[in-house]
Amino acid sequence: MAHLDVVRQAQRLPPLPFGAALHLGEILWGNIGAADRLDFTAIGPAVNLVSRLEGLCRPLGRSVLISGRGPPPRPPHRWLPLGEHMLRGIAAPCAVFTLPDAQ
Fold first, then answer.
1. Is the distance from CB of 79 to CB of 59 less than 8 angstroms?
2. Which of helix, strand or coil describes residue 91?
């Protein structure tokens, strides 16, 4: 994205903000719906959590956020802790990490 934003800046276009969130958890995925209207999707608590986590990218000013749920974060020496945050619809606070260069 940084490279693309440099190209866009040369063309006098605004940068393209984006956010990505990573979380480890179980999901259900597949076609959902009726025979005449199927949607391929993923559902489950892990999908909800990562969606809410992605919503923190802009407020925290980071393009990549990683949840601290599940196995311990690896490699911890590269991940920067951003504290615990309440996520809408999630009962317990979620430890949030980012990468050093994910501005």
1. no
2. coil
Model confidence pLDDT, tens digit, residues 46-71:
999 999 999 999 999 999 999 987 65
pTM for this prediction: 0.78
Region of residue 87 (phi > 0: left; psi between -120 and 50: alpha; otherwise: beta) = beta
Count of Cβ atoms closer than 10 Å to residue 103 Cβ: 10
Contact 38, 58 (CB under 8 A): no
Q: How many residues does the chain have?
A: 103
Annotate 10-71 with DSSP letters as a single string.
HTT-------EEE-----EEEEEEETTEEEEEEESHHHHHHHHHHTTHHHHT-SEEEE--SS
Determine the average pLDDT of the residues in 32-36: 87
6 bridge partner residues: none
C-alpha–C-alpha distance, residues 99 and 83, integer Å? 14
